[in-house]
Amino acid sequence: MSFEELEHTADVKMRVRAATLEDLFSEAGRALMQVMYGRPGKDGQTRRITVRGHDLESLMHAFLSELLFITEVDGLVISGADVRIHQGILDGEVRGEPFSIDAHNEGRGVKGISYSGLSIVHDQEYYILDVIFDV
Amino acid sequence: MTMLPGIQRMGECEWQVPVGYVPGMRVPGIFFLSEALAGTLEEGAIQQLANVATMPGIVAHSLAMPDIHWGYGFPIGGVAGFSLDEGVISPGGVGFDINCGVRLLSTPLKEDDLWKRRELVERLFRAVPTGVGGKSTLRLSGRELDGMLLEGSAWAVREGYGIDEDILLCEQNGCMKEADTASVSQKARQRGMPQSGTLGSGNHFLEVQVVSEVYHPEAARVFGIFPGQICIMIHCGSRGLGHQVCTDHLHTLEAATRKYQIMLPDRQLACAPIDSPEGRAYFGAMAASANYAWANRQVIMHYTRKVMEDLYGIPYQEMHMVYDVAHNVAKIEEHVVGGKRMKVCVHRKGATRAFGPGAPDLPAGYASVGQPVIIPGSMGTPSFLLHGTATAMEKTFGSTCHGAGRVMSRTQAKKRLTGKEVRDALGKEGIIVRAPSDAAIADEAPEVYKPSIEVVRVVHEVGLSRLVARFEPLGVIKG
User: Fold this and answer.
1) DSSP letter string over B51-119?
2) How many Cβ pairs within 8 Å bridge chains A and B?
3) N or C: which end of chain B has fewer CB within 10 A?
């Protein structure tokens, strides 16, 4: 599993790779935290999550938008997710640690997850997600 | 000079993207750009300008201002009007930060009066919560949040965060009457409650500035601006509440796009007919978010006035607001299209309303000059005050640019500059910067933006708005 930041002038574009679809969602969550706080969280607390989508892209959009809500409202800096995906429903748990102004101050606020340029492809080895965060 | 292929030159700074540039365009695209800025134009941005031209009910042209750049949905700097009968409304034409905007506060101080400059910046930084995780000192009840959402600036003034004249000095008097709290989700409310009165992060700022040049003395006098004057500029939006409203309705409208069988080249342009249940719900929630943003800037301006009152003994009432404009919003306005006056739903995404003299919704005192247009610079670069024009009314639904526009990605910026280097360089120019982290400073270094002077020069030359005054930064609070 990995993620990297790609060139984008106005916003932040991330490319995320993972061997399984479930891991792709988890890693995408970590990528979002990297942008927002300068690093993903550490394990400690957990929280349930359920989102729906009518295709893989809309499911990813709903998932990352939900993480944005969780991190802002509950102050949870996410370290990963254990999720199951079945018939357009993603269900599971996210892990993370409480936000601390001293430990999580090297990022920038993300306003939203863009649908523009959001794509998920599967090559021989990996699922690959491209996603743009509006900052 | 180099211009992207397929684009036609219409004038010195005016370019046309013809129908057919992408399949399904209903009207041509028009954008305004000087030769000096042509090199910064991204193909992706023109593609997005053309994509907007494919949307149902678009009238006249799909437009972009000289700060055009590659965004999501609409290009940043994009403007489009849609007929109320056949047209659509789209969060892709407004953005996540609904009513991100700018407010300018004047003071009676001159630059020489501004002693204790470092202390001023420090106190402003402490008075206005900023950055990721910055929490408000307000403790709003659900009812108070409703007040913000329904009444905007007027709510804040009634609660003691300003004076009556402030309300009239906002675009739309700081309130869109179409606000509908029922379309604002619980989630949006949960995000909005603890963030009211906070600046946020990214390109948002609060800046202490000095009027370094007056280009149009008569208009400056009308706006209460004089050379050497200290002013304060506030740039922020609707915070998590607006972001969540955009996210929520993007999902609803994505489904609506399929329901109404609208073909779109980009999912972020998800939309619905203006007069459909989904379109009305988005419009009502967006208007409520816009009101939240106006109230938010009002509260931040109040904190600022209190600090100035405390530190320099200036009476609160003697710090007059110049104006407040929105950058990201959709509104129903009357415009002349093809010789006929009609109501249109104007989307402005990273663009500023620039109504000319005698237009509706101008404060009485400004009617002869036109609406003040406030163009914030990027950190460490000048900002500008302009006025709206009749030309803008004819060409761009009364719209102009909104700022500089990035030219360097954040990945490049980080490789090139550290926050400390940027801070030191600005310090040498006499600009004090205060931010929650150095990362925030490196991200927004002056070099990563187009020169705002060139962007403003283009709108001045084309006549979409005319220059009134220039402001140099002295102290910056970064989000």
Assistant:
1) HHTTSTTEEEEEEEEEEEEEEESEEEEEEEEEETTT-EE-GGGT-SSTT-EEEEEEEEEEGGG--SHHH
2) 114
3) N
Domain encompassing residue B309: 8-407+449-478
Q: Give residues with Cβ within 8 angstroms of B344, minimum separation 6.
A: B59, B81, B82, B83, B84, B87, B332, B333, B334, B335, B337, B397
CATH number at residue B38: 3.90.1860.10
Q: What is the pLDDT of residue B43?
A: 92
The token duo for A64 is 């990352």
Write the single-letter amino acid at B46: I
User: Which residues pair with residue A134 across a beta bridge?
Assistant: A112
Retrieve residue B431's tokens.
């600009």
Rounded Cα gap, residues B304 and B296, in angstroms: 13
Has B249 been annotated as catalytic?
no
**Domain span including residue A89:** 2-134
How far apart (Å, rounded) are the C-alpha atoms in residues B10 and B29? 12
The CATH number given to whatever domain includes residue A113 is 3.55.10.10
How many domains does chain B divide into?
Answer: 1
Residue B436: pLDDT band with limits 50, 70, 90? confident
Q: Residue B415 has what pLDDT?
A: 77
Number of H helices, E strands in chain A: 2, 8
What digits encode the pLDDT tens for the residues B316-346? 999 999 999 999 999 999 999 999 999 999 9
Contact assessment for residue B193 and residue B149, using Cβ atoms and an 8 Å cutoff: no
Residue count of chain B: 479
- Longest pairwise C-alpha distance within chain A: 42
Position B376 in a domain: yes
Tell me how far apart the alpha carbons of residues B295 and B114 are, in angstroms, rounded to a whole number.
28
Chain B contact set for A7 (CB, 8 A): 409, 411-412
Give A16's strand partners: A3, A129
The answer to whether residue B253 is domain-embedded is yes
Question: Is the distance from CB of B232 to CB of B303 less than 8 angstroms?
Answer: no
- The DSSP bridge pattern shows strands B29-32 and B101-110 to be unpaired
Return the bridge partners of B265, or none.
Answer: none
pLDDT tens for each residue of B162-216: 999 999 999 999 999 999 999 999 999 999 998 988 888 878 999 999 999 999 9
Q: Does residue B440 form part of some domain?
A: no
Contact criterion met (CB < 8 Å) for B132 and A105: yes
Place of tokens 């609070």: B477
Q: Is the pLDDT of residue B1 over 70?
A: no
B292 in contact with A at a CB cutoff of 8 Å?
Answer: no
For chain B, percent of residues with pLDDT exceeding 70: 100
Which residues of chain B does A104 touch, with a Cβ-Cβ cutoff of 8 Å? 132-133
Active-site entry in B61, B249, B302, B402: B402
B64 is written with which tokens?
Answer: 């972009």
Nearest to B292 by CA among B174, B128, B185: B174
Asked if residues B401 and B459 have their Cβ atoms less than 8 Å apart, the reply is yes
B267 contact A CB<8A: yes
Distance from the Cα of A20 to chain B's closest Cα (Å) equals 25
- Number of domains making up chain A: 1
Of the candidates A61, A65, A135, the beta carbon closest to that of B202 is on A135
The two structure tokens encoding residue B413: 């910026």
Q: Could B254 and A115 be called an inter-chain contact, meaning their C-beta atoms sit closer than 8 Å?
A: yes
B337 bridge partner residues: B340
